[in-house]
Amino acid sequence: WSSGSEGASFLTNATAHGTAAQFHHRWVAMAALAAAWSTSYTVLSTPRTVIPPGKLRSLAVWLSIAATAQVGLGIATVLSVVALPVAVAHQGCAVVLLSVLLRFMHVLKHA
User: Please, is 100 exposed, middle or buried when counting C-beta atoms within 10 Å of its C-beta (0-12, 13-18, 19+)?
Assistant: First the structure.
């Protein structure tokens, strides 16, 4: 991971090099997808007497959909060699995912 700067820190090497940054981005994306699926599964598998049908359950479904779409668009972006429309869709989906997650957390807090 060294590019000639032998004194560079691990953090600098992990973020300054494109290959390393993409590698870490992919692993964090997979961990976030697993967390979204796990959260959605937990909410949806909880008995309806504990979490009644409503906003929280529907947001759990949307959380899984948005996270899956985000990872799918990320893969499509790489496979398309960063075609601009796909890359823009990936960025737009990130905004949607963040919005769904923030709404989910708000509803969860006030449930």
Answer: buried
pLDDT tens profile 10-45: 888 788 888 888 899 999 999 999 999 999 999 999
**Cα separation, 27 vs 72, whole angstroms:** 14
Could you give the C-alpha distances from 45 to 19, 32, 40, 42, 53, in angstroms and in order?
Answer: 39, 20, 8, 5, 12
CA gap 57, 44 in Å, rounded: 6
Contacts of 101 (CB under 8 A, 6+ apart): 63, 66
- The pLDDT of 65-88, averaged and rounded, is 97
Note the pTM of the prediction, 2 decimals. 0.86
- What letter would DSSP give residue 49? T
Calculate the CA dihedral of residues 41, 56, 34, 11 and round it to 10 degrees. -160
Q: How far apart are CA 63 and CA 55, in angstroms?
A: 12
3-class secondary-structure state, position 43? helix
